Amino acid sequence: MHVQMANASQASLKNGTLSPFDGPQWPHRASRRVYTSLAALMGVVVLSASLANGLVIAVSVRFKRLRSPLNYILVNLATADLLVTFFGSIISFVNNAVGFFVFGKTACRFEGFMVSLTGIVGLWSLAILAFERYLVICKPVGDFQFQRRHAVIGCLYTWGWSLIWTVPPLFGWSSYVPEGLGTSCGPNWYMGGTNNNSYIVALFVTCFALPLSMILFSYANLLLTLRAVAAQQKEQETTQRAEKEVTRMVITMVMAFLVCWLPYATFAMVVATTKDLSIQPGLASLPSYFSKTATVYNPIIYVFMNKQFRSCLLNTVSCGRIPQTMPGTPATTAVRGGFVLTSEGRGNKVASTELHS
């Protein structure tokens, strides 16, 4: 298979240009303006993601009431996103500013591994988050009590599973190489061959298709459960509004996941399974940058839109001038990890809703 940006070292020997590790890649890969624009984008991502995810971790440490088992996976997500920022976005920022991978081949392999490891941890964290909500809200295993050990197992699973699928390229099953414009590194999805293609297909199934299926399954069942409860109180305007709010939030979460990971997964699969496909370096880099921007909007969607987290965050940022809001929860109310069900006789009533409370 031939891909235009396939082997940078061989290409440099043929046309006399520098490899991604030896000097600026403009103008033969892209104009200097493209590299400068990407450096600016990565600069914004680094500042925004560091602040947002740093605040999530700091607020979680400060406020004990945020350290509930259902919030463990949110901190796990913030930690993974922060590591993606440190080991991926910062390196991409520096490299795009100078126009090539200035840190060398060893650092390229390390960056490719760390970004893949922490990126997949973040991806699977979203899937585990959805599944935990499914367990707590839909009660598929009866009166299941979600406890600290379950939360810890979920977090450990994301790291263990990610390690299983990101270590192999370090030992010969595919490899980590410069991508697209030569300023970031990742799995070798564009050079073809059985070794690379088999790895990309395995990675697509285990680290994209499976978590996406879990997310769709969990949120579909969550919505069905909410609608079943809401059907018992059709006359209640708050019930209908609650259902619409949860539906809107679920759609937002699924769309954010797809915007982040679908371009990268699809691009890699198409290139890995299609012969004689010519790809422009700039186009080949886009999916990688799509995934890095998720480190900014993940904390906004999954954490800052959480009333508990938002209240504690405002209290922290204002140095205590803005008091925490302490949501009252009556004894008759069962909070099921997302919306509030109030027991009334034999039925359940949706009193209020917030998918990440």
UniProtKB/TrEMBL annotation:
Signal peptide: none
Domain G-protein coupled receptors family 1 profile: 52-302
GO molecular function per UniProt: G protein-coupled receptor activity; photoreceptor activity
Keywords from the UniProt entry: Chromophore, Disulfide bond, G-protein coupled receptor, Membrane, Photoreceptor protein, Receptor, Retinal protein, Sensory transduction, Transducer, Transmembrane, Transmembrane helix
Sequence ranges of Polar residues compositional bias: 1-18
The species this protein was found in: Phelsuma sundbergi longinsulae
Topology in the lipid bilayer: Multi-pass membrane protein
Database matches in Pfam families: 7tm_1
UniProt-listed PANTHER family: OPSIN
Family: Belongs to the G-protein coupled receptor 1 family. Opsin subfamily.
Top-level lineage group: Eukaryota
Primary subcellular site in the record, as a coarse category: membrane
GO CC entries: membrane
Annotated transmembrane regions: 34-61, 73-93, 113-131, 151-171, 199-229, 250-272
Region (Disordered) residue spans: 1-20
Name of this protein: Pinopsin
Subcellular location field: Membrane
Record GO biological process: phototransduction; visual perception
